[in-house]
Amino acid sequence: MSTKELAGRLKKFGASATGAIHNKVNELQQAGQQILSLNVGEPDFDTPATAKNAGIEAIQTGFTKYTSTNGTAELREAIAEKLWKDNGLQYRADEICVCTGAKQAIFGAVMAICDEGDEVLIPIPSWVSYTAMVTLAGATPVPVLSHADYSLDLAAIETAITPRTRALILCTPNNPSGAVYSEESLRALAELAVKYDFFLIADEIYEKLIYDGCRHFSIASVSREVRERTVTVNGFSKAYAMTGWRLGYAAARKDIIKAMIKLQGQITSCASSVSQKAAVGALRGSQEEMNRMVGIFRERRDFVCSRLRQIPHVSFAQPHGAFYVLADISRYLGKQYQGKTIITSLDMAEYLLDTAHVAVVPGSAFGAEGTIRLAYANSMEVLAAALDAMESALGRLE
Ligand SMILES: Cc1ncc(COP(=O)(O)O)c(C=O)c1O
C-alpha cells in the first residue's frame, strides 16, 4: 500500500524525536547491548505508595468503569484544592478537565483555542510536541528564541506578535533547558498577552522539580484578566512518577473547559478510573516520597553539572528545575571520527550512541541545534559511567 493513501495532515509534522530515540535504544537493548539511557524523560522512581494503594483499592472495589468525561468530582475537587494551596489559583471543579496525561490536556487546549490561520508563539528551546500539536490544529507554530540562559526574551516575543497571534505556549520549569522563568518575566509576559489579546497555555508539569530556592510561579495567578485567558496544565507523570498511569489535567475558564470536554468526549471518553483514584491518593496522601525524589534529583543535577564542567569545550546554562541539562556541544561539530564528520546534533547523538553507548536527545528536536539534552533521571552509577564514556568519546573526535 502506498503512503499516498494515508491522511495528508500526518505529513505536516515529524514523528516524536524523543520517541524515535527511545525506540532505537529499546531495539539495541533487546539485542543485548548495554545502553546508558540519558534520553528518557521520566523519573526512575516508583509511584508513591499512597497512589499505588489507592489504585489497588479502586480495582478491588470494582471502581473500574467509565467516569464522567471531565473526570471524577472527587479528583477535580482534590485538584482544585491543590491549585489553590500550591499555586494561589482559584478554580471550581467544573473549571477542571482530567485528561489522559498532560500531553492530551495540551492538545485539547490547542484544539479548543486555535483555528486555521492562527499563529501560536512557542519560546524555544521547547518540548518536542507543541509544534506538532499546533500544526495538527491547522495553526502555525512561531518559534521565538529565548536568551542564552534560556530565560524568556520578552522583546523577541513582542516582535513576533502579529494580528494573527492567538496563543503562546510556555513551559516552566522548562523541558529541555531546566530553566525556571522568573515571576517578573511571567508578569511581563502576562502583560503582553493582555495588551495584544492572546491566550496562554501554561505547561506546569515540572512544577515540583525545582531547586536552589527557586519558586514556581503560575502565570494565571497574575490577575483575573490573565486567568481568563490562561489554560493551566499539569499532571502526575513527573511529580509522582506516574508516567504509565496516563493522567493530567487542565484548569481554565468554563467555556474553554467545556470545549475540551466536548472534544475528549468524542475521542477518549475519560481518563482511566483506576488512575483517577490513584491520583487522589497522590494528592491527598503524604508528599514525603515526592520530596525525597526531588532531593535526589538535585544531587544528581549537581553531579552532572560538575562533571560536565570538567569536559573541555562543553558549556551549559545551569538548570534550576526539571531533570534535564541542555549541553552545548557546538564546538565539537565539524570534527571527525574514522573519516565521518559530525555535522549536526543528531550526528552527535548517533555518534555517542554508537561508540559510547550513551543515549541523549539531539538539541535539534527542541529547536536548539548545537546542543544535546541529558536527562539525569538515572542512578548516580549510570550518570557517572555515561559522563565518563561521553567525555572519552568527545576526546576521540579530531
Ligand atoms: C514539557 C512536557 N509537557 C508535557 C509532558 C507530558 O506529560 P504526560 O505524561 O502527563 O502526558 C511532558 C512529558 O515528557 C513534558 O516533558
Structure in a nutshell:
This protein is α/β, with parallel strands linked by helices and 398 residues long. The protein has helices spanning 17-30, 49-60, 73-87, 102-113, 129-136, 154-160, 183-196, 224-228, 254-267, 273-284, 288-309, 345-356, 380-395, and strands at residues 36-37, 96-99, 119-124, 140-145, 165-171, 199-203, 230-235, 248-251, 315-316, 324-328, 336-337, 340-341, 358-359, 361-362, 371-375. It is built from 13 helices and 15 strands.
How would you characterize this protein structure?
By secondary structure, this protein is of the alpha/beta class. The protein folds into 2 domains: 3-46 and 289-395, Aspartate Aminotransferase, domain 1, CATH 3.90.1150; 51-284, Type I PLP-dependent aspartate aminotransferase-like (Major domain) (Aspartate Aminotransferase, domain 2). The strands form 4 sheets. A 7-stranded mixed sheet has the order 2-8-7-6-5-3-4, with helices on both faces. Strands 9-10-15-14 form a 4-stranded antiparallel sheet. A two-stranded parallel sheet has the order 1-13. The protein starts with 16 loop residues before the first helix and ends with a helix. The model has no long low-confidence stretch (mean pLDDT 95). A hairpin with a 2-residue loop joins strand 11 (336-337) and strand 12 (340-341). The chain is globular. The chain is built from 13 helices and 15 strands. Helix 12 crosses helix 13 (380-395). The structure holds pyridoxal-5'-phosphate (PLP).
